[in-house]
Amino acid sequence: MWSLIDQITAFLGIPCLLCSQPQHEPINICKACLADLPWCQQSCRQCGLQLNIGPKSTMQLICGQCLQQPPNFDLSLAACHYLPPVDSLLRRFKHQHHLPSGRVLAHLLTQKVKTYWQQPGSFQPELLVPVPLHRQRLRQRGFNQALLLSQWIGTELGVPVARQFCRRVDQAAAQQNQKRQQRLHNFRHAFQLRQPIQATRIALIDDVLTTGATAEALSRSIRNTQGNKVKQIALWCIARTPPPGHQLIW
To answer: N or C: which terminus of the chain carries fewer CB neighbours within 10 A?
Structure first.
């Protein structure tokens, strides 16, 4: 669902954010660049890690790690790999508050979800829950990128967004160079629910999935809060960061 301004802008023509060629879509990316993005394919349905099981496979499999230690969320869905040009769009959106880049990223995830919804038995949430930022990080950045993404995605998919259910109560240390177990330890008391969630199926919205520690901690808090009706939790994100040495095929 696009606003009147989006439709007028598309009619007049806008340059693609990636190749600068004029195009007439209601989003700042042309069809050629859209097709060339590093889309995630054949991934583990729980952690989102690519399984490299063949370009023609349509099976939804679970990786060995998730079979041994299932996460607290039931499904993850990432639009793209964290590779150029998706990584640069994310940096521009998060650190420069470049809203056109954010709208493109939200569009990528929306298209991924719509394609997934065509599969039998697909997960369709009743509520989108953006991963919250700690108030200190929110003051520094000025906005929560997950909330903006949720609002754009929710509008296009017709799914309501929960803005105030969860809060970040513990500001963990920088996570970039830490392993999964270290991150899980840092996030063990990071989130708290302000009130029970009445929806039975929800989707957590975040920008990048690295180890899954953030989603794991938030999902655990949701499942452990009394009064919740949540039965199924999905994680939707823009990009999946592969572990070191993992070969990607797309």
So the answer is: N
Euclidean distance between the first and the last CA atom of the chain, given in angstroms as a whole number? 29
Closest C-alpha among 100, 203, 101, 98 to residue 160 = 203
Distance CA 228, CA 185 (A): 24
Write out the DSSP string of 97-125. --HHHHHHHHHHHHHHHHHHHTSTT----
Cβ atoms of 17 and 100 within 8 Å: the answer is yes
**Residue with the two structure tokens 């499942």:** 223
Q: What does the alpha-carbon distance between residue 177 and residue 182 come to, in Å, rounded to a whole number?
A: 10
8 Å CB contact between 76 and 46? yes
Q: How far apart are CA 108 and CA 238, in angstroms?
A: 7
Complete domains list, the chain, with CATH? 1-36 (no CATH), 41-53+71-171+183-240 (3.40.50)
